[in-house]
Design brief:
With about 290 residues, the protein is of the alpha/beta class. It has 3 domains: about 60 residues, Multidrug-efflux Transporter Regulator, Chain: A, Domain 2; about 70 residues, Methyltransferase, Methionine Synthase (B12-binding Domains), Chain A, domain 1; about 120 residues, 3-Layer(aba) Sandwich (Rossmann fold), CATH 3.40.50. The chain has 15 helices and 7 strands. Bound molecules: cobalamin (B12). The site of cobalamin has 35 residues, from helix 8, helix 9, helix 10, strand 5 and strand 6.
Length: about 290
């Protein structure tokens, strides 16, 4: 998962919950992290700097002092966010099982949390925070790729199983990741919300040519065709076809797209006919569809 891409200060603010002012102040006063500068002079943070700042933010919120944290090795600080989780949080033991590559334990804990919370809360309270922890520990070399793969395997299997259950009726969404896109934790978590709202989810998988999604839509006549892309470059590679996508769907099938890869392109996507955000799954905003079916 190495990332060469860099993050601008407003992106870092969104990813860490710290304001841009605070980020600048920590840099100035404590030398917390020193981002590179892009050719136009903007701060350009690396993925490991974002991970470290996210750990600083969490630990400061739990009472640590930034002045003390900045002198410690980054990997140690990030690992401490796991140790300092509230004692009743399942994320600590889950991370320990992931790091120990203990598949049986990871599977048992994931199954237990899914049963306990239900699919949507499992996605929000376990899957998304776990993705953040796994990513941050991996990026500073604290977690091997094998551990990330194990976590991905188990979590995705659980999410997909959850999405297949229930709802025999309800509107149908055909869903897929863009060509070249293999990240599915976030998409499946977003689909968990749609599932709870009553949608039937027909998930076609990762890395799917758009023509295939269109073919499936003509075959299945879904109410919605939902796409996901987490990386901007991957989005750019499909841009020409993406712009045509909504118009190539059968009448009565709407299109939506989500994920970090569309950042900055929301207006173009909306103009092409995509509905954006959770509103695309809003059942009450679909009176026109009810009439056409
Ligand atoms: C697990 C993981 C992997 C696994 C994925 C396994 C799987 N089957 O999903 C594997 C090993 C395959 C992988 C590979 C790579 N990865 Co990776 N991966 C991760 C990790 C740890 C978590 C995954 C994740 O999905 N997170 C992101 C989720 C939680 O958020 P999200 O996708 O934005 O989704 C949210 C919203 O956007 C929304 N959403 C998403 N889609 C949709 C769609 C609709 C319709 C709607 C309404 C909403 C919606 O819902 C979510 C909840 O809000 C992250 C680190 C992290 N902390 O996130 C890195 C990360 C995402 N990976 C990264 C990279 C760079 C890669 C690779 C390029 C590495 C490489 N050189 O090979 C490859 C690319 C593979 C590919 N072709 O896509 C970078 C991405 C950098 C960037 N572009 O921003 C990250 C951030 C790691 C990092 N810090 O550098 N990765």
């Amino acid at each position: 998962m190495p990332a060469n891409r860099t993050y601008e200060i407003h992106e870092v603010a969104a990813l860490t919950g710290l304001t841009a002012d605070r980020l600048r102040a920590w840099e100035r006063r404590y030398d917390a992290v020193r981002p590179a500068r892009s050719p136009n002079g903007y701060r350009a943070y690396s993925a490991d700097q974002v991970a470290l700042l996210r750990a600083f933010a969490k630990l400061v919120e739990r009472g640590a002092r930034i002045g003390d944290l900045v002198d410690r090795p980054p990997a140690e600080v990030i690992a401490e966010t796991v140790h300092r989780l509230p004692s009743n949080s399942p994320l600590g033991p889950l991370m320990a099982a992931v790091a120990a590559l203990d598949r049986d334990e990871v599977e048992a804990m994931v199954a237990q949390q899914l049963a306990l919370r239900g699919l949507r809360r499992f996605a929000d309270e376990i899957v998304l925070p776990l993705a953040e922890l796994v990513g941050d520990l991996w990026v500073v070399g604290e977690l091997p790729i094998a551990a990330e793969h194990l976590a991905s395997e188990v979590v995705i299997h659980a999410l997909k199983g959850g999405l297949r259950h229930g709802r025999a009726r309800g509107p149908l969404a055909v869903c897929a990741c863009l060509p070249g896109e293999r990240h599915e934790w976030g998409f499946l978590s977003a689909l968990a919300h749609a599932h709870e709202a009553g949608w039937r989810i027909h998930y076609l998988g990762t890395d799917l040519p758009l023509d295939e999604v269109i073919g499936a839509a003509w075959q299945l006549s879904p109410d919605l065709a939902a796409l996901s892309v987490s990386d901007e470059e991957t989005c750019i590679q499909s841009l020409d076809r993406l712009i045509q996508f909504p118009n190539r769907l059968p009448a009565g099938t709407r299109a939506t797209i989500g994920g970090g890869g569309i950042r900055g392109r929301e207006t173009a996507m909306a103009a092409a006919g995509f509905r954006l955000g959770a509103a695309a799954f809003d059942l009450h905003a679909r009176p026109a569809l009810a009439e056409t079916r």
